[in-house]
Amino acid sequence: MPYDIQPLWQQTLTFTADYKLLTSAVIVVLFLVAQRLTLKVIRYRSRRKGEDRRHTLNLLEQISNGCLFVLLIMVWSSEIQSLAISIAAFMVAIVIAMREFIQCFLGFIYYLGAKPFRVGDWVQMNQAVGEVVEMDWAKTALLEVDPDTYSYTGKHVYVPNSQLVTQSVRNLNFLRRYNLHAFSITCEPQVNPYSLLPAFIARAKAHCEFYRDVAERYKGLIERHLDVEFIHIDPTIGVSTNEMAHLVITVELFCPTAEAHDLQQKISADWMNLWHRALAELKEGREPELIEA
């Protein structure tokens, strides 16, 4: 004879209705224990496989927290309904007072739908640049990155999710390995810079040879993803003047993020060597000649 679970279900509902506080405590404890165990198992497996599952863990945690919140609302639905009726006259004031929180929640809903980034990506939100380390319904936590050196500062920046719908968000994830690095060198207009460019360009290219093959593959990956060609592997060098009539040598190169600072120092040193050699020739009374590579 099959066992009828209907009486047991009715007893459970009766117990839940009579002891809502105890039921809520039991649900919270069991839910959190199950959540922690599940996340621990996923972290353990991801470490063994060497995979980055931070996005999955964060998303799973937020979804489970939402489910817990819904369960608690179901348990206390009658009380919440009575409370909602009693404060109906103050609803407008409550909405105004909680406007920022509502905007943050809507920003989180926008993130779930549009997915402009994920945990582990580099992003720029307003003036904050960093790696997304955590996200919930109210805020996004960033591990700050110095936009000039592309190195971690060790600071955490917490950005309200309301900025996801009110401010532009830039996904800088491709800068984690390679970036379009640009810098300038300013000199007195004492030497014709175009006589130094052939040797300078050759030296700059020589500094970039060691990563050319990898850069070509990474360039192709980025341009296929964005469906536009805008990256040049060889250094791009330009000559201009500033408002003080000084010469400005601008160098742009696509290089590994970790090597950007060292490459800038080496290329700058090459220009200074060529520049001071030309100045020395001028002091000796000789016109600087075109310096070949």
UniProtKB/TrEMBL annotation:
Subcellular locations according to the entry: Membrane
A Gene Ontology molecular function term of the record: mechanosensitive monoatomic ion channel activity
Cited InterPro entries: LSM_dom_sf, MscS_beta-dom_sf, MscS_channel_2nd
Any GO CC annotation of this UniProt entry: membrane
Keywords: Membrane, Transmembrane, Transmembrane helix
Parts of the chain that traverse the membrane: 20-39, 59-77, 83-112
Chief location category: membrane
Gene3D superfamilies: 2.30.30.60
Residue ranges annotated for the Mechanosensitive ion channel MscS domain, each copy included: 105-173
Classification via SUPFAM superfamilies: Sm-like ribonucleoproteins
This protein's record includes keyword RNA-binding: no
Listed name of the protein: Mechanosensitive ion channel family protein
